[in-house]
Amino acid sequence: MPAEGPRQRGQSCPCPGVQTKLPVLRWLPRYSLAWLQLDLIAGLTVGLTVVPQALAYAEVAGLPLQYGLYSSFMGCFVYCFLGTAKDVTLGPTAIMSLLVSSYAFHEPVYAILLAFLSGCIQLAMGLLHLGFLLDFISCPVIKGFTSAASITISFNQVKNILGLQGIPRQFFLQVYETLRRIGDTRAGDAVLGLACLAALAGLRAMKSHLPQTARTEPLAARVSYLIVWTSATARNALVVLFAGLVAYSFQVMGSQPFMLTGSIPQGLPAFRLPCFSMTAPNGTIPFRSMVEDMGVGLAVVPLMGLLETVAIAKAFASQNDYRIDPNQELLAMGFANILGSFVSSYPITGSFGRTAVNAQSGVCTPAGGLVTGALVLLSLAYLTSLFYYIPKAALAAVIISAVVPMFDAGIFRMLWRVKRLDLVPLCVTFLLCFWEVQYGIVAGVLVSGVLLLYSIARPPIKVLEGDVLLVQPQSSLHFPAIECLRDTVCNRALAASPPRFVILDCSHISSIDYTVVVGLAELLQELRKRGLSLAFCSLQDPVLQVLLSADLEGFQHFPSREEAERCRGAEPGGGGAAPLASTSESSLLPAGLIQ
Amino acid sequence: MPAEGPRQRGQSCPCPGVQTKLPVLRWLPRYSLAWLQLDLIAGLTVGLTVVPQALAYAEVAGLPLQYGLYSSFMGCFVYCFLGTAKDVTLGPTAIMSLLVSSYAFHEPVYAILLAFLSGCIQLAMGLLHLGFLLDFISCPVIKGFTSAASITISFNQVKNILGLQGIPRQFFLQVYETLRRIGDTRAGDAVLGLACLAALAGLRAMKSHLPQTARTEPLAARVSYLIVWTSATARNALVVLFAGLVAYSFQVMGSQPFMLTGSIPQGLPAFRLPCFSMTAPNGTIPFRSMVEDMGVGLAVVPLMGLLETVAIAKAFASQNDYRIDPNQELLAMGFANILGSFVSSYPITGSFGRTAVNAQSGVCTPAGGLVTGALVLLSLAYLTSLFYYIPKAALAAVIISAVVPMFDAGIFRMLWRVKRLDLVPLCVTFLLCFWEVQYGIVAGVLVSGVLLLYSIARPPIKVLEGDVLLVQPQSSLHFPAIECLRDTVCNRALAASPPRFVILDCSHISSIDYTVVVGLAELLQELRKRGLSLAFCSLQDPVLQVLLSADLEGFQHFPSREEAERCRGAEPGGGGAAPLASTSESSLLPAGLIQ
């Protein structure tokens, strides 16, 4: 997969379009037994995680429980064929469920229609190649998001470990309630949960300290190595199964110290178009008024879904360093939601927790999704009776051990050392994510955008004082920067008496826009008024073309700084290499008012 | 004034703070009789324009007519002391009146409170030095705004020239209605209006073709020159007075072929705090609920006022090339609105039309505002009876002849020649301004911002193929650009077989952020995985510091391109100048998940 990474991006793709639009073709031919084994384990583990999560999230969304499961398989299937990130798993998530609850009015019909429309919008974005927007999610923002999410998600599971019920979803209320009711902890759940956590931690440690085996070693060693390795990699599945057995045996003995997943309504959803109208007690609600009811939700849901997916995909892509194709991700999301709506799914997106579980279990290709999806379908059809016995504490342990490593305390120290300014978007995102993840990400992106624009509006300008004043902008000039440059030049040039000959070294300027041209024209005029002359030097070709096409009055340019200094005697506004156009002045002034 | 220009900006101001905060101190000491003469003429002309405009705009704002005049003098006084642009005149405007009408519910109390609160908000922005935001209004946006405004404002006056009444304000409706009812044209108004237009055009032409006089010429010549010059400069006032006399004589003769300004209620407004509550038929409305009623208006009104003023100030500043201090403009606006609210003014801002008249009349300092303000006060106190006779057609002619020159058809050709991409913000602004000026400006700013961000996300990258691959970004690297750079390097490096030694020439990179550092770290890893090595060369010092502080694994750098090429044999990831930090990998990966 990594090898393919760099070839997956739009503008620079040497491989046929089919492979780009259908990433499955890229890994399927190279699919091996080793991969299959890992994908099976991962898919199974994620499957065992998604089923109870789906039920929980359906509750959050205010829908009947089975809708959680209906939303959990189509995403996996679609993503397997269209997705470009091996770890990402689409499905119901906490944030999306919250949004759905506020836009679907606890009505499955609304939720399904919302999924359909969101899918269409995301698909449109993908087809319009708006994926480059992804580049504007900077690393500190992703860091802040992942770190905060790991804390919220894992704390969200603490209540299951302690066997507490009726804890609110909002993070701060959750913390308060959990601490307040710490006394009500159920011994059974706590013991099991902590045991599972310990087991998972131990198995992971074991895996990371596993020595490499050489072919030279005796068979026994290699076999035992394989066993340890497998159990360590499949640890999530193992722990869940083990906990399930324990719970079952207690059940058989007639006592039950654990909170169990409980019974799940059985049967597959029908495959049909979503309803575009709804029969309410007081007559049918037409499509138009349903859309009006959802209102802003039709913008928020698809965008948030996108933001979450791409942020997660980006994070995991660079963890396991492969590259994702943003536009392809949009398409996958879109199709997943549209097809999902055909099987009564509510809007889905990339799940942070399950994607982490997936990666932790060492998934190799999106094929893992097939296993997950199949497991969900099976569970809907037959296995609900088995899932009944899964203790919630065990699943909580799986999720916690998956997301805790996402928290990276080092990043704060790192940014302090490398680039302090980047601490601002990091902290903004990190802190706001505890309030609402979507606000955190959006605010982070905005803050880093503002910092970016500011650095463009105030580029570093090197000034060498002397009998000749040499001014050298250290980067390209964009329109917000020209005022600042004009001020620098004017103030420095007029500070000295007699005013000096000014040389503008443009070696670092690769492109300029019209506003900059106008600013330079005004600068030339302003200096000439004061009997000063300004010479340009080391102009890159495109910049020179633009300046010549604008025929600035009194524009002189020289190939190098030295030659410019040599001609410092030249009378102000004197010809130099530039044509003197008497019209240029009036045609260049911003307001163009001179008559 | 121009000489002072460059010294007026915040960050680079060598002159004492008092002069910056009180610009009047900058020009008052140098005030001369010649200036006084011109300021008098300009102030008078603007005064004669503002009075009837104020009445018209008060009607637009849905307030009793006298409130238009109450809003017309305080702005002039305040700006005279605090303003940094000699041409700008603050007062009621069409756009602001429209906004007021939608947020003040035809209630003076609301309008005045709105003015007070808007002033406070603008003052706060000024004190927080948010003036640099002004730099993000690019030249094409100003061009589009001024050109569109000149068309709408002048067409808005056509109805007065034709003597049509009851024409809607919205531009397109206005055009439709005016054309539909062209038959109802009143001969008297049309004749007078066109005559005034012709006279104004003639006088302007005369002025622009006026030859310079030398001391050597005979007195007669110099005197006649002075007469011609004065009448040409004071043409607006002359035309209005002349038209007034004509209308008066007709009145005396008992027939009136013209639409007159009509009678204006007399008397000065009281100077008192605005009311913070309102007595309605059904009990008093408290401050809080008044604020709630105005709601979003409290954001829209101050911001639009600001946007308009700064756009206009910027346009005229660069027409008559002097510089404005954005933050000072905010302060002036804020004080003008706050003090205005003490004399029952509704929110005011820079008036495009009157500012043009002011500039056309050759105003030299903001002192012109004192005359205008005084004239308004006088008119309120005594002169309303005289203004009665001013024909609307004559004032329409003055405004039209002032704003028509603002339309600059050349800009389209100019941008096509110099920088085609800038035609996009220009056209967006220009076209949308016909719908709603505020939408036009906002959309234009957004579009140019998007283009700016895109050019940063996709910087020009020069690639020299050879047995060594040399990659040179042409401008600084900001976080949105790193993905693009990574792809370019990877694709080019892997395209060749055997893969090549890569040199990244950083001579044009003046600063990098953490995201870029991470991207480079991943790039190093990616290339090393494929047995390639990447060397950095010509690093600027700050950039080198950042890269060293991040201790990238396998980071090698060389002072020059040649030295880098010399060492191309170096084994991939080999030490070079960089410390090999085994921790760096995990601490640098965005998701930081590697355990």
TrEMBL record, chains A, B:
GO cellular component: apical plasma membrane; basolateral plasma membrane; lysosomal membrane
Keywords, sorted A to Z: Anion exchange, Cell membrane, Ion transport, Lysosome, Membrane, Transmembrane, Transmembrane helix, Transport
TM regions (residue ranges): 33-58, 64-82, 112-134, 226-250, 296-318, 330-349, 370-390, 396-416, 423-454
Region (Disordered): 566-595
Protein's UniProt keywords contain Membrane: yes
Catalysis performed (reactions): sulfate(in) + H(+)(in) = sulfate(out) + H(+)(out); oxalate(in) + chloride(out) = oxalate(out) + chloride(in); hydrogencarbonate(in) + chloride(out) = hydrogencarbonate(out) + chloride(in)
PROSITE patterns linked to this entry: STAS
Role of this protein: Sodium-independent anion exchanger mediating bicarbonate, chloride, sulfate and oxalate transport. Exhibits sodium-independent sulfate anion transporter activity that may cooperate with SLC26A2 to mediate DIDS-sensitive sulfate uptake into high endothelial venules endothelial cells (HEVEC). In the kidney, mediates chloride-bicarbonate exchange, facilitating V-ATPase-mediated acid secretion. May function as a chloride channel, playing an important role in moderating chloride homeostasis and neuronal activity in the cerebellum.
Protein name: Sodium-independent sulfate anion transporter
Annotated source species: Grus japonensis (Japanese crane)
